[in-house]
Write a structure and sequence with these properties.
This protein is about 40% helix and about 10% strand. It is mainly alpha-helical. The protein has one domain. The protein has a two-stranded antiparallel ribbon. About 10% of the residues are buried.
């Protein structure tokens, strides 16, 4: 699950539908490491404005694991 602020979404001006660039980026990510995913998205959002954050940017990435049997 990924939750991000509007600063992340609004950083990309190429897409009319702001969620599409994150969707396409997530399709290309090869890791399941939540920290790496958050870092990749944040770095891309900053790069969208030539290396300067355009606004406040927050992102939360979490992974849900299957339920384990036992006590």
């Amino acid at each position: 699950m990924i939750i991000c602020s509007d600063g992340i979404l609004d950083s990309n001006i190429e897409y009319r539908n702001k969620e599409l660039w994150i969707k396409y980026m997530l399709e290309d990510i090869q890791t399941t490491n939540t920290k790496k995913i958050a870092d990749l998205i944040l770095n891309e959002a900053i790069d969208n404005n030539f290396g300067m954050p355009k606004d406040d940017m927050s992102i939360i990435v979490c992974k849900f694991l299957g339920r384990r049997d036992g006590p």
